Amino acid sequence: MAIKRIGELLVEKGVISEQQLEIALRRQKVTGEKLGSVLIKMGFIDEDKFYSFLAEQYNLKKYDKSEIIITKEVQKKLSLKTVLEKEVIPLEIIDDKLAIGITNYNALNSLNELEFECGKKIIPFLLQDDIFKKILEDLRHFPYGLKDYKYISLKSIVLENFGKIDVGVDKIAELIDKIEKYYEQIVFTDGMPPMLKKDNVVIKLNYNIITHAKILEFIKNYLSDKLKKDLIIKGFIRVLVKINNKNFYVTVLKQKNAYSLTFNRFKKFIPDIMSFEIDDSILGELLSDRSGLYIISAPFGHGKSTVMASIANNFSIKESYTILFINDFMNYDINSNNSLVYQFEVGNDFQSFYDAIKIDYFLNSNIIFVSRVTNYDELELLINLAEAGKKIYLSVEAPNVTSAIYCLINLIRERNKSILLNRFSNILRLCMAQRLVNLKNSDKKLYVYEYVMMNIKLKKFILEESFTNIDTQLKGSSEYVPLEKKFAELVLKGVIEKEDIFRYSVDYDFLKTYLKH
User: Fold this and answer.
1) How many other CB atoms are there within 10 angstroms of residue 182's CB atom?
2) Which of 155, 479, 480, 492 is buried deepest, with most CB atoms within 10 A?
3) Pairing of strands 428-438, 292-298
4) Which residues, in sequence order, are CB contacts of 345 under 8 Å at separation 6+?
């Protein structure tokens, strides 16, 4: 049944008016959301009422338990691959039939296939979108089939912990942090339920909408008068907030009269660089006293900051150095153990990366970590410092080593470019690209990386700006060990799912070649 037909039925039943439907359909064209989500968000229909209506129209039962336990025995009835591909969730066994949760009605077309796989009759139940999406994303990172999975709605958890639903944003954030093992951000927005970002997927949590008053209450309690003024002038601020002895970095964004709060965990614990299982020769180069430029690249959310903090922490513990760590968003607090560590945040401590890097003229650091460069002046400043005998670590948001080198070279100005390319190639020592990959049947992540070390061929290609030659003449050799080779090895060992690696690779043809070996 088409989405528009659902809207017409809602009007026919007197649940919404024709005018409300027209407004929602116009909004839907802009946002691309499901009509139900738009109607609920705009307050035209209650969420429970909408899903009850849908269940009735499709002759389905609504699965509305506030606590859902999916046993490992029930999980084994359908493979994780089937669950993710068909968008169905095995729920429980009822009278020797498998109850499944759906939200996409196309899943009803696969009932015969599902019954064949599990060897039982299927009873489909309708799940709310937010609940379905949360469970599906949890199962993606869960030791599927190995232990029981438990879902409890955020409403129930808040009520259980605080004895009421209406609590402050800080308490909700604290509670989410307790119950979620793996997440990137918690987001509170005017007129929306709380949202969770996991593996770059945004999930609405089953809770009341966050009111404008609740966000203003948080701003009043946690922002100084100066920060409030900065928020009015700039439209956004970032602040370190302590909630029940736990630190969060909170970004406050103001758009017209609406606000959003984004919570990121401030991490005290820094993983040991040895735990990443980097080859001894590469690890030795990373942790050596040798000066030069070392590039750490990855797409957003794949651990660049964590690896940089791990390397910095290793130096701080073992030697007596002066370390400068510059980031646009500080995730880790690096302790000054045997070293003197300076951590600066661009936007708060300095206006730009250029201004932050220049502080080294006064600090005279041995080792410098920079989370990114945005223009040629910043890159040239790092080249100057590397030529002066300093060890520079630079992270670049790029999917592979070729793209990372290209991104930096692309910043160099045309004037005297050949001289600057030569200087760049002389100080470049190593370029790594990394991914955090889902382990099979586990909620843990595996660190996978590729690398190229500076050599005569690579220098030639940089000077000639022949970036395609890096892939055609170096990739796959001992000088450039690619991600695709490591992905294929991990699939053959049964460590990661074959389907997963296509989400992480950018060279499918190369990947397919290795998988055939």
Assistant:
1) 13
2) 480
3) parallel
4) 238, 327, 328, 329, 330
Give Cα 329 to chain centroid, integer Å: 14
Copy the structure tokens of residue 148.
């029981």
pTM over 0.70: no
Which range among 168-172, 439-443, 487-491 has the greatest average pLDDT? Answer: 168-172
- The shares of helix, strand and coil residues in the chain, as percent rounded to the nearest 5, are 45, 25, 30
Q: Do 135 and 148 contact (CB within 8 A), yes or no?
A: no
Cross-sheet strand order for the sheet of 391-397: 340-345, 322-327, 367-370, 391-397, 292-298, 428-438, 445-453, 480-481
Q: Any idea which residue has 């909700």 for tokens?
A: 172
- What is the pLDDT at residue 389? 94
Tell me how far apart the alpha carbons of residues 289 and 365 are, in angstroms, rounded to a whole number: 13
For the chain, give the mean pLDDT: 87
Spatial distance between the Cα atoms of 290 and 26, rounded to a whole number of angstroms: 60
Give me the residue label for tokens 């709060």: 261
- The conformation of residue 249, written as its DSSP 8-state character, comes to E
Determine contact, residues 376/411, Cβ cutoff 8 Å: yes
Query: Concatenated DSSP letters for 44-69?
Result: SS-HHHHHHHHHHHTT-EE---SEEE
DSSP string covering 379-444:
HHHHHHHHHTT-EEEEEEE-SSHHHHHHHHHTTS-STTHHHHHHHHHHHEEEEEEEEEEEPTTSS-
CA distance 134 to 153: 10
Using CA atoms, how far apart are residues 242 and 3, in angstroms rounded to an integer?
Answer: 45
pLDDT tens string 129-144: 888 888 998 888 788 8
C-alpha dihedral, 436 to 439 to 444 to 446, nearest 10°:
-40
Query: 180-198 pLDDT, tens per residue?
Result: 877 888 999 988 889 998 7
Examine the pLDDT at 452 and tell me if it is beyond 80.
yes
Cα-atom radius of gyration of the chain, to the nearest Å? Answer: 26
Report the pLDDT value the prediction gives residue 1, as an integer from 0 to 100: 38
Q: Is the pLDDT of residue 3 over 60?
A: no
Q: Which of 436, 370, 492 lies closest to 198, judged by CA?
A: 436
The arithmetic mean of pLDDT across residues 260-269, rounded, is 83
Q: Give kind and range of the element (H or E) at residue 431.
A: strand 428-438
Q: Are strands 236-243 and 428-438 parallel, antiparallel or unpaired?
A: unpaired
Vertex 413, ends 409 and 395: CA angle to 5°?
Answer: 35
The residues, any chain, with a CB within 8 Å of residue 264's CB and separated by 6 or more, are 184, 185, 248, 249, 250, 251, 329, 331
Q: Which of 53, 36, 44 is nearest to 16 (CA)?
A: 44
| Cα-based distances in Å from 91 to 76, 112, 160 | 11, 18, 23
pLDDT digits (tens, 9 = 90+) for 91-138: 999 999 999 999 877 788 889 999 999 999 999 998 888 888 889 988
Task: For tokens 């402050």, name the residue.
Answer: 168
pLDDT band at 256 (very low <50, low <70, confident <90, very high): confident
